[in-house]
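To assess whether ligand presence alters the predicted conformation, the chain was also submitted together with adenosine-5'-triphosphate. Input:
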Amino acid sequence: MRQSQLFTRTRRDAPSDEAAKNAQLLIRAGFVKKEMAGVYSYLPLGLRVLKNIERVVREEMDAIGGHELRMATLHPSEPWKKTGAWDAVDVLFKIMSRTEKEYALGQSEEEIVTPIAAEYVQSYKDLPVALYQIGQKYRDELRAKSGIMRGREFGMKDMYSFHATQEDFDRFYQIVKDAYLRIYSRCGLSAKATEASGGSFSEKISYEFMVLTDAGEDDIVYCEACDWCANVEVTKLAAGAACPKCGGALKSAKAVEAGNVFDLGQKYPKAFDFTYKDQDGKDQYPIVGCYGLGTTRLMGTIVEVMADEKGIAWPEEVAPFSAHLVSLGKPGDDASAFADALYADFEAAGVSVLYDDRDARAGEKFADSDLIGIPWRVVAGRDAAQGMVELVSRATGSVEKLSREELIARFT
Ligand code: ATP
Ligand code: MG
C-alpha cells in the first residue's frame, strides 16, 4: 500500500491522559484511537496487527483440534442468574432494556458455551471436545491504566473443553500449554507457565502464562535455571529462596498475565444439568476446562517488550506489513522511478509492503518508519543508479546492501 494513500498519519504527541507506553506509541503511530479509559478503536494499521495475532492464535487452536464458533456477546440474564455469577462477578456489565429486561455483556462465556455443548454432547463418544472463539469481551474494570493491556472492551480468545475424566483434562492441558507457548514465541515473546494455583483454598485450579515486563501488573517469582514460575499472590516463596523444582535461586519480576487456564471441574455442567451417558449408560457430568488468551493484551505486550526510544518494533509474524519501502527520490527523478519499480516487484511477489512514496524529507520518513515499526526497511535512493537498495533491520539496526533480485528473494 502507498503511504500517501494511508488513511492515518503519525503524530508527535499522545494524549496527555494516556500513561501507558503501549497506548502512547500505538496512538502516535496511528494504530489505535482512544475512545475513553479502557476502550480503543483499532484503525487500519492496528487492525492488521490484531488480525495477524488472531491468525496465529487460530492456527494453533485449530492444530490441537479446537472447533471455532462465534458466541453471542449480548447475553440473556437467566444463565448468569442460574450460576450465581450475576451477583458474584464484580466486572459483569449489566444492561437494562427500555422494556426493563436485563442483559449482560459477555466477560467470559461459560454461561453460554455450557448449554451449547449440552445440546450436542450426549455420549462419552462425543468427548473430549474443545470449542473456541476469538472476539470482544466486556469487563467493568476499576482501573484501566495499562493502555490496551487492560481494557473495558478488549479482544480475547476463549476456549472451553469438555472431558469424561480428570486425567483427560490434565492430558489436554499439557497440549494447550504447548500451543500457548508456541503462540507467544511466534509473537516474539517468551512466556512462563505458572504452577497450578488455587485448588485447596479456592474453588478453581488455575495456571497462568506470564510474560516478563515492567509494564505488567503481576508480581512473579521464577527460576532462571529451569522453567519454574509462580505468582507472588499464591506462593509462599520469595526471591532468593531455593527453586522447589531444581534448587536454583529464585528471582522476582513484574509480569503481565498473557493467558490463563482454569480447571472448572463439574461446576457448570451441574448448574445447567448437563450430563452425558458413560460406557455403562449412566449419566455423568463432564469436567470442563477454560482457556483464555487476551489478543489485544498480547498486542500491547509486544509493544511494551519490543519498543525502543524511537518507536515500535513488530516481530515478523504480526507486523502490519513485511517491509517498509522508503523512497528518497523526488517525484519524477530516477530514485523515485526505481522505488516505483521495487514496489511493483513486491506486489508481484505477493509481499505485503508499505511504500513511503510521500514527497517528504528523508528524516521525517525515517522517524515515521521507526515509530510504525515494520521489521524491515528498504531504502531506495542513495544507490539507485547502481540498482542497489539498503535493507535495514528495525530491531537491530543492521544494514545490508542488496540488488533488486536479492531483495525480493529475501521476502519470498
Ligand atoms: P487479570 O488478572 O489480568 O485481570 P483475569 O484473571 O481476569 O486477568 P481471565 O479472566 O482469565 O483474566 O481472562 C483471560 C485472559 O484475557 C487473560 O489472561 C488476559 O490475557 C486477558 N484479559 C483479562 N482481562 C483483560 C482486560 N481487562 N483487558 C485485556 N485483556 C484482558
Ligand atoms: Mg481480571
